[in-house]
Write a structure and sequence with these properties.
Blueprint (H helix, E strand, L loop, with lengths): L2 E8 L4 H13 L4 E8 L5 H11 L3 E4 L5 E5 L2 E3 L7 H6 L6 H6 L6 E4 L6 H7 L4 E5 L3 H14 L6 H5 L1 E4 L3 H10 L19 E4 L21 H9 L5 H14 L12 E7 L12 E4 L3 E7 L7
Parallel strand pairs: 1-2, 1-3, 6-7, 6-9, 7-8, 9-10
Antiparallel strand pairs: 3-4, 4-5, 10-12, 11-12
Helix pairs in contact: 8-10
Length: 304
């Protein structure tokens, strides 16, 4: 069933910009019914807070800077990939714990099964790897599609954008279908997902608010706006859902006999003090004072 979502449009936004958003919904068959609502005011912080209170549910806003944002719980956020340019350009294993854990090459194929705002996908793709981004929430998927199209207009971002594919679907459903159809991939040349097995499956599932504690002080860390918004529209998985997700990922990732470190791993992102996903001990871990990356190697186990 499609959800009915207001698209609040500032009065000075061009019709063409509105049509871009509406066209993306149709082009990618997103389960959304957007209702354009024009307002004469500029989308100031004060106006956004008023709109959030008025609608009392997640909505989208489009301003005159061509910025599509999610407004929920008085928090307004967008992927804002342009703000990550310096980090993307300088990304490497010395600076990015994520890349230390994933050990990607230019030929790697990655499944980011919980894409969110896509920030980690950008870092993964900065290595030259191709990344399939899964996002089950259609509002979030639309934000990602819009951001990708907008950034692809900049010449210095085009190669990176071409390595990203966004799919609006539940990660468990996607991996179950991928695994079930595995025997048909070689003959299914028309399928966009049939080319190559995934070398790395990356999981960054939602976790409870009380997981954010500093490793040294044990005091709760301040949660950023992006994470606040995600907590407002998504629930953390329970232990059974975590177990199923990890099992599916390990069954879906590349099971090649080649046991090189870059092949066949599931990497899970957690706050450093958070419990292990599905209470399962990883094969390797990388961490700093804030984050931890747990890696599970496919060649070490067929199933958790």
């Amino acid at each position: 069933m499609k959800s009915d979502t207001p698209l609040i449009i500032a009065g000075d936004v061009a019709d063409d910009d509105v049509n871009v958003v509406l066209t993306l919904v149709k082009q990618f068959t997103l389960p959304l019914n957007l209702t354009p609502v024009m307002i004469e005011e500029k989308l100031t912080q004060k106006v956004r807070k008023r709109l959030s209170d008025e609608y009392a549910r997640p909505i989208l806003t489009l301003d005159n800077k061509q910025q599509l944002s999610l407004l929920t719980g008085q928090v307004s956020v967008s992927p804002a990939w342009q703000s990550l340019q310096r980090r993307v350009v300088s990304a490497g294993r010395k600076s990015e714990l994520l890349l230390q854990a994933c050990k990607l090459t230019q030929s790697s194929h990655v499944l980011d099964a919980t894409a969110g705002f896509g920030h980690d996908s950008l870092i993964l793709a900065s290595t030259g790897a191709t990344v399939v981004m899964l996002e089950r929430n259609p509002l979030m998927a639309l934000l990602l599609e819009y951001e990708q199209q907008k950034m692809a207009q900049h010449k210095n971002w085009q190669k990176l954008m071409s390595r990203l594919q966004i799919v609006c679907t539940d990660a468990s459903d996607y991996m179950a279908n991928y695994h079930a159809n595995d025997s048909h991939k070689a003959d299914s040349k028309s399928s966009q997902h049939s080319a190559t097995a995934f070398d790395v499956i990356y999981l960054d599932p939602m976790f409870p608010d009380n997981s954010y504690e500093h490793a040294n002080s044990n005091k709760g860390a301040k949660v950023g706006k992006h994470m606040q918004a995600l907590h407002d529209i998504a629930l953390p998985p329970d232990i059974d859902e975590e177990q199923a997700l990890l099992n599916l990922a390990l069954n879906t990732v590349n099971h090649s006999d080649d046991k090189e470190a870059a092949k066949g791993r599931v990497v899970v992102k957690r706050p450093v003090t958070a419990p292990l996903l599905a209470n399962c001990q990883p094969d390797e871990q990388w961490q700093n004072d804030v984050l931890r990356f747990d890696a599970y190697f496919a060649h070490n186990r067929d199933k958790i």
